[in-house]
Amino acid sequence: MKRLLSIELQKIWKNKASRVLTIGYFILLSSIAAISSINFKFIGIDFRMADMGIYDFPFIWHLNTFVAGLFKFFLAVVIVSMMSNEYSYGTLKQNLIDGLSKKEFILSKFYTVILFALLSTVFVFVMTLILGYSFSSFNETSIVFMDIIYLFGYLVKLIGFFSFCLFLGILVKRSAFAIGFLFIWYVFEKVLMHMIEIPQKVADFLPLESMYNLIKEPISRFKTVQSIESQLSDSTNIRDYSVHWYSILIVLVWISIFIFSSYKLLKRRDL
After folding, report:
1. Which alpha helices (H) appear in 98-206, and where do they start and end?
2. Is residue 231 part of a domain?
3. Residue 187 forms part of a structural domain
4. Which residues pair with 39 in a beta bridge?
5. Does a structural domain hold residue 33?
6. Rounded Cα gap, residues 264 and 259, in angstroms
7. Structurally, how many domains does the chain consist of?
8. Is residue 182 part of a domain?
9. DSSP labels, 47-78
10. CB 26 within 8 A of CB 126
11. Rg of the chain in Å (alpha carbons)
């Protein structure tokens, strides 16, 4: 495992574009902290985002993992490029000539996917604790770690999304086309859900939708938003924000499908 990871990390670090995107990704994650210093002026009243309770424990776990998940596209480009470069530079064929099996090759990519997801999760974990202890009104240990399950959901979500990108990189071979296919698939799922109106229970099994279901939007949890919604609607809309075991299971199944399909696809190809 260590040897396979070392090979992949060297390839990524020696590629300038991948290196810049990876560093840029973690800089963007840090921008979540910058939100705390933003001041707004509304009807002559100045207020700061950090004073609005967005960094209160345990809510901050939900907010930070959701916002951090929006930046995953940057690492997705790295994952797709990581695979397309193998074809462009001929390193895939050279690795196989040097004795690396196709199974080991796929595993090296999957280990890299897991490593990126773990590093991102640890980064969000540390940042959340720093922001929470700096601004939260609740610092009791039982409250601080109450909703830490969102962090696990975030980890599974990233592994699932990056595994999908890895599969597309092998399927399409060209990074631009793979990213384009990813966007087309996103639109396809939205068409199924909102135009064809397939049942939500069926939509929950779609790959991107199942990943989204792990961490749903947290904005509607704000009391201000709920107050506005209650004034605009007579009925009370009860939302479920929990990270459910079956949502995790669905994404884990998709991860298995993507990695197994990547291996089968690579195995059948004449390189």
Report:
1. 102-135, 141-144, 149-172, 175-194, 200-203
2. no
3. yes
4. 48
5. yes
6. 9
7. 1
8. yes
9. EEGGGGTTT-TTHHHHHHHHHHHTTHHHHHHH
10. no
11. 21
Distance of CA 171 to the CA centre of its chain: 21
When the pLDDT of each residue in the chain is averaged and rounded to a whole number, the result is: 87
Residue 30, pLDDT above cutoff 60: yes
Q: What is the pTM of this model?
A: 0.91
Helix, strand, coil share of the chain (percent; to 5) = 75, 5, 20
Return all residues near 21 (Cβ < 8 A) that are at least 6 apart: 74, 75, 77, 78, 81
E strand or H helix that includes residue 45:
strand 45-48
pLDDT tens for 216-260 read 998 877 766 666 666 666 555 677 899 999 999 999 999 999 999
User: What is d(CA 195, CA 100) in angstroms, rounded to the nearest whole number?
Assistant: 47
Range of the domain at 124: 2-225+238-268
Measured in degrees and rounded to the nearest 5, phi and psi for residue 143 equal -85, -40
